[in-house]
Amino acid sequence: MAGAVVPVEEAIAALSTFSLEDDQPEIQGPAVLVSSERSATISPVEYSDVSAYRLSLTEDTKALNHLNTLILEGKDMSSVLYTYRSCVKALPQLPDSMRHAQADLYLETYQVLDLEMSRLREIQRWQGSAASKLAADMQRFSRPERRINGPSVTHLWSMLKLLDVLVQLDHLKNAKASIPNDFSWYKRTFTQVSVQWQDSDSIREELDDLQIFLSTRWAILLNLHAEMFRVNNVEDILQVLIVFAVESLELDFALLFPERHILLRILPVLVVLATSSEKDSESLYKRVKINRLISIFKNDPVIPAFPDLHLSPAAIMKELSMYFQKFSAQTRLLTLPAPHELPPREAQEYPLSLVWINASDHAEVAVSAFEMHMTIIIPNVNTCKIIVWRHYLIINHIGGIRAEHDDFMIRFASSMNQLMLLRSTDGTDVEWCKEVKGSMYDIIVEGFQLLSRWTARIWEQCAWKFSRPCKDPPPTGVNGTSASYSDYEKVVRYNYSYEERKALVELVSYIKSVGSLMQRCDTLVADALWETIHAEVQDFVQNTLATMLKGTFRKKKDLSRILSDMRTLSADWMANTSKPESEYQSLQHGGEDSKANFFYPRPVAPTAAQVHCLQFLIYEVVSGGNLRKPGGLFGNSGSEIPVNDLKQLETFFYKLSFFLHMIDYTATIATLTDLGFLWFREFYLESSRVIQFPIECSLPWMVIDHVFESQNAGLLESVLMTFDIYNDSAQQALVVLKQRFLYDEIEAEVDHCFDIFVSKLCEMIFTHYKSWAASELLDPSFLFSLDNGEKYSVQPMRLNALFKMTRLKLLGRTIDLRSLIAERMNKIFRENLEFHFDRFESQDLCAVVELEKLVDILKHAHALLSKELTVDSFSLMLNEMQEKLSLVSFSSRLASQIWSEMQSDFLPNFILCNTTQRFIRSSKVPLQKPSIPYAKPNFYCGTQELNSAHQSFARLHSGFFGMPHMFSVVRLLGSRSLPWLIRALLDHISNKITTLEPMITGLQEALPKSIGLLPFDGGVTGCMRLIKEHLNWGKKSDLKADVLCGIKEIGSVLYWMGLLDIVLREVDTIHFMQTAPWLGLVPGADGQIMKTQEGGDSPVVSLFKSATVAIASNPRCPNPASFFTMSKQAEAADLLYKAHMNTGSVLEYALAFTSAALDKYCSKWSAAPKTGFLDITTSKDFYRIYSGLQIVRKILGYLEDSVQVSNHEVLGDSVAWGGCTIIYLLGQQLHFELFDFSYQVLNVAEVESEFLTQAHRNIQFVQGWEPLLEATKKARRLNNHVFSMLKARCPLEDKVACAIKQSGAPLHRIKFENTVSAFETLPQKAA
Predict the structure, then answer these.
(1) What are the pLDDT digits (tens) for 92-113?
(2) Are 370 and 495 in contact (CB under 8 A)?
(3) 3-class SS shares of the chain: helix, strand, coil, % to 5
(4) For labelling, which of 173, 476, 895, 1138 has a CA lying 20 to 30 Å from the CA of 1109?
């Protein structure tokens, strides 16, 4: 069934509602995709349409087209030579065992080399053909019968460009040492292979010619010289070319930097050719003063030729003087120093930039070592120094460039806003429309000029660096010794100072940002540019020329004819709304004044042929076609044109030169923003004899890496601009140089560099957010108390633009940088969590506070980053690193580590201080831990300062374990892993009791059969003597320490449970305060939870039910079932939260568990008296054993070796908690308090002291035992404290305690009968 047809208007209207815009910022260069399309400047029709204008340019145009063809071919030849790499290095060498295959090897080698030599033979033939054609073209303009005695300006440019191609070819041939090496191998293999050939003489002759061509320096230039002066002399045309080049350089007539570099490269060659003729060689200096040439050569002593090859006018002229004897007499030109020969005393004759530095300011200027000898210091001029820099260095101009960039961006945006307003407004005024579009044209011209000037700066600085390598690279070897460096490292890697790299990054970003901005606006400004060009041309030919015709028509017929030809050639009468051409004849003869023609501008630009013809006609008007007259083009004194008219012709002539670049908008931007030359290094690869240099020597990567090394937040957004250099170099490799292997090398470097870039970028992002989080989590009072608290603040970084880059263009590929950053950040967060756990595992349990702080900082950094980037949830990553992703996994890596640490170190080696409620490490136990893993500062808190600040807080909790640590344990483990740890600790108590049972039995056996109450007669001394006699434990004395340590560990676990109970109660209270209002619960008078509405729904259920009824009753509700589902979920949540309100006490649970564990040994440790009466003398219950151990520990140890304090430092107060808890749960508290040996000693000491006081006797004897008595009193107070706590938390009288179900769940506040054990249903761990 066919669908309904949608009208076109509706479809267009629907499409207009879609937005194709996104929020990706423009922080990358134009990123032209790799392509091989021809640009518009390469005209498909060349100049073949010139004949349609019926001008005397047919012959000139044919020659012009021929020259342009030769130029394109010559550029291809230059690419072949520049990218030529030695084949000999790849040739195999046969071992002695395969000498019989030598002939086959020669044949294979010959076939491989013959392909490369065929290209060299083609270059040889082409240069001979090009030289003869260029010489013939020059000789054609020297014929006296030619009516127009000089070539057109377009023709001059073509001759100069072809000459430049020949010079570059010659320079490459001289520089490439691998070419003659390969040729020698080729000739050797030819000699071996051609033995079997019948006719090889012709090939041998070709090889001899090619050998002469390759081995002769400047062979192409010498051949050109011979061709030019073969028939007749061409001094005149050479002088014309020199005058044109000099005037173009002095008047800045070269609009774009490639044209200026062409003029600089060929000028010294032209001078050499012009002064080497057989005629008067000094005639040149009659037209061009030698001082003008010297000034040009001094202003530009280094000229860019190829990416890593430069030309020096002084060096060229010195070398050519050996081949051209006439030129060897030009001493003033030959004495010009080459760049590497410039001494400091002569540097002031060259263009300088002065930087004034006040010596009192102690200003530092980054000057690399290789530049220091180029600096002129005028000492102590008004306490100032004048440091003179070469104008090649960008750092001397970056301030002005920065101001130019900012000003241009503002004015370009303003012009674009005006243009957009104009496009959106109907019926605008014609004059205002013309003004807006004219302003847009002017700003585009200015943009092209800025781009040309900035890109030329980079070209020229690179050429300068290549001409002056670093002489003193920094020492990187062992003991500060300098290692060996390649030449390329000296000219690139170590040749750019810190400030120079920073300036280069800035300038590259300016070029790419301006180019990208202008590239994006090409379709918006195209009509404005074409209309402005059309208006300029029509205003000149219809109005300006009309005025000239009225003034010059009656004076000279020939001049009027040329002006009329210009009108006929380019006038657009269709846009004229005033008077047609037919009416113009009467205006020329009439006396009445006529108004200027009014025309509507149309987006119709002139063709290349029209521009060529207009320039030709203007040239003919001004000079009469004779450039040999003194004064140059527009300074010709022989012209009959008035000065004002000549000025107008000159202005329009220069505008015509720029029209073609404006029409070819995209290609011009691509040319001016092309920085691909920064990557190529073919010459140095050959001279260094390496396959490729490391990326540290790659200039594009150097500027990218500088952004990260400098930690300059202002340059961060420019880092993607510098990556566009690789796009440019790849485009050059495929389109210009046409070499796939170069593209493969670029691609390989980009793949490697981009991985490093993403890694460094993510590390910088992580460091920033980690520092930001650590700074925010610092204690405000700590910052307030500091005088320099600002050092802990973190400066903002503009990372949002990088986070939004989802379409990064790189080598024709589109890369989602945002997803790459997110993926890498997920990995870094996991690695950081892994490091935190590894660090905690190499420390004791006291480091749990530090661990929590580090995890909190990481979590806060994750929260800050999540606002800008989509990364995995922190809880997911934390669970993954703790290995508790499974639904049935209740343990975790952290819980296992805490339990392992408690079992192996905390319980055996930490002692309790009951007064401070802290565990501290025993001084008798040395700390033995593995080394703490090392990581960068960003894995801690971000920066060194923040690390020190947070570590100072961590050190406050590193020497003990107390309430802060327990809070950290609860928060880190959570409700999922904490029960597992509790169960493990309870099992440890049960195991310890089981372990103690045989030891207690052994001590019971070692006790005397009868120990009565200590007598009062002998006083404290007698008691001590009696205890020592009876409690020596006999052969079982070695069990004392093990029993005490076991009791200590039980006490430590129980006290640890007490701390945990306090923390959990606080957490539960907070949880209750948050959930109780929604559940309708209030605390009762006795602390129990009560409901506010008996039998009714809770507030949260009532809220969702009422909302569901209200929404479902609305007929507009699309899906009421979903709201009923929400109501059911609210009821389920109500039941779930209420079930967890009545949480029990962990301590009570632990005491119940301990009591159940003791029930198995109750008959042994708490035997019922046989007589039914209290057994005083023969009892061997547990309280008796513990009492004996306690008195031996506190008293006998003091009597023997005074190690009471040491014993306490080893065992601490945990022994009292463990022993008293066991005594209490066995029901032996009253027995212990009545018959404890320590308590008896205290009673005896009290009676004895009272008796001696009443009898007025000396009490020194009692006073000698005072330290022991004080320690015993302290122990009694501690025991009383423990018993009081146990009575409160586990009252045995009424048995109101915590019972345990078979499932392990506690039943709270249940009253049981007073039986031997109320906890007989407690599940026991399987044996």
Answers:
(1) 776 666 666 777 888 888 888 8
(2) yes
(3) 65, 5, 30
(4) 1138
| Of 850, 988, 845, residue with least CA distance to 929 | 845
| Rounded Cα–Cα distance for residues 406 and 1033 (Å) | 94
**Cβ-count burial of 887 within 10 angstroms (0-12 exposed, 13-18 middle, 19+ buried)?**
exposed
The pair of three-digit structure tokens given for residue 1234, joined into one six-digit string: 């009545």
DSSP string, 901-940: HIIIIIHHHEEEETTTTEEEE-TTS----PPPPP--GGGT
Task: Categorise residue 1172: left if φ over 0, alpha if ψ from -120 to 50, beta otherwise.
Answer: left
Which is nearest to 848 in space by CA: 657, 981, 703? 981
How far apart, in whole angstroms, are the C-alpha atoms of residue 1224 and residue 541?
Answer: 119
**Structure letter (DSSP) for residue 599:** B
Tell me which amino acid residue 109 is: T
DSSP string, 3-18: PPPPPHHHHHHHHHT-
Angle at 508 between CA 505 and CA 509, to 5 degrees: 85
DSSP class per residue in 738-773: --HHHHHHHHHHHHHHHHHHHHHHHHHHHHHHHHHH
* pLDDT tens-digit series, residues 692-712: 889 999 999 999 999 998 888
- Residue pair 691/643 in contact (Cβ under 8 Å)? The answer is no
Contact between residue 575 and residue 538 where contact means Cβ atoms under 8 Å apart: yes
- At 1309 the three-state DSSP class reads strand
Residues 6+ apart with CB under 8 A from 655: 536
Q: Residue 811 — left, alpha, or beta (φ > 0 → left; ψ -120 to 50 → alpha)?
A: left
678 pLDDT tier (thresholds 50, 70, 90): very high
Which DSSP state fits 286? H
- Mean pLDDT of the region 1090-1113: 78
The whole-angstrom distance between residue 326's C-alpha and the CA centroid of its chain comes to: 59
pLDDT by residue (tens digit) across 369-387? Answer: 334 333 333 333 333 333 3
Tell me what the mean pLDDT of segment 731-742 comes to: 92
Distance between alpha carbon 1220 and the CA centroid of its chain, in Å?
63
Contact partners, residue 276, CB within 8 Å, separation at least 6: 225, 324, 325, 326, 327
End-to-end CA distance of the chain: 78
Take residue 1042 and report the two structure tokens written for it.
């093990």
CA distance 1218 to 1220: 6
d(CA 519, CA 514): 8
CB of 63 closer than 8 Å to CB of 155: yes
Query: Considering the chain, what percentage of its residues have pLDDT values greater than 90?
Result: 29
Q: Distance (Å, rounded) from C-alpha 1080 to C-alpha 1073?
A: 11
CA distance linking residue 123 with residue 131, whole number of Å: 12
Is residue 613 within 8 A of residue 571, CB to CB? The reply is no
Nearest to 63 by CA among 169, 123, 148: 148
DSSP string, 846-877: GGHHHHHHHHHHHHHHHHHHHTTS----HHHH
Output the pLDDT for position 728: 93
Instruction: Of 245-254, 294-303, 659-668, 882-891, give the lowest mean pLDDT range.
Output: 882-891
Q: Which residues of 762-791 are buried (b: 16+ CB within 10 A; e: fewer)?
A: bbbbbbbbbbbbbbebbeeeeeeeeeeeee
CA 413 to chain centre: 29
Q: Which two tokens stand for residue 153?
A: 């300006």
Q: Which helix (H) or strand (E) holds 1082?
A: strand 1081-1083
Written in H, E and C, the secondary structure of 454-518 is HHHHHHHHHHHHHHCCCCCCCCCCHHHCCCCCCHHHHHHHCCCCHHHHHHHHHHHHHHHHHHHHH
CB 717 within 8 A of CB 505: no
- What phi and psi values does residue 918 have, to the nearest 5 degrees? -135, 150
